[in-house]
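Subject: for your reference before the review

Hello V.,

The reviewers asked for a structural picture of the protein, and I figured it would be easier to keep everything in one thread rather than splitting it across files. Below is the amino acid sequence we used in the manuscript, unchanged from the supplementary table.
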Amino acid sequence: MPRPLVPGYWGERLAWIAGLVLTLSAFTDWYAGTQADGLTLSVTGWHTGALGKLVFFIGLGTLILEALREAGIELPVSVPESLVLIALGSLATIFVLIRLISIPDTFFGTAGRGIGIFISLAAALLLIVAGLLRAAEEL
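And here is what came back from the structure prediction:
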């Protein structure tokens, strides 16, 4: 029997999924293109500089936060977990949007955006939604 539509349940599951997808999306292609000789290039988020690495660590931090919560270790009451998730999701969204708009000069020849950058953006936005669902549970 499926679980009822409880905001906290969906917030927990969505935070796990968004954190995992955000972590893995740093290793997907963010930029792709074809060179003049027909060679296809793909640049992963990890290789786009500090912002790609920060997206990975934000996803990893989300997974650690969720694992600690499952183990019974919670943040202090003065720091709501929903606020932390919203902040992490907002940071990841900003970092991915910067990379979506501004292609690093090193990879300018591969000017096409790959599917991975859009997956990263979706995961970052879902992390914000997970934080909002958690905030609805806390009320």
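For the response letter, the relevant points are probably these. The mean pLDDT is 88. The helical segments are 7-25, 50-70, 81-101, 115-138.

Happy to draft the paragraph if you're swamped.

O.
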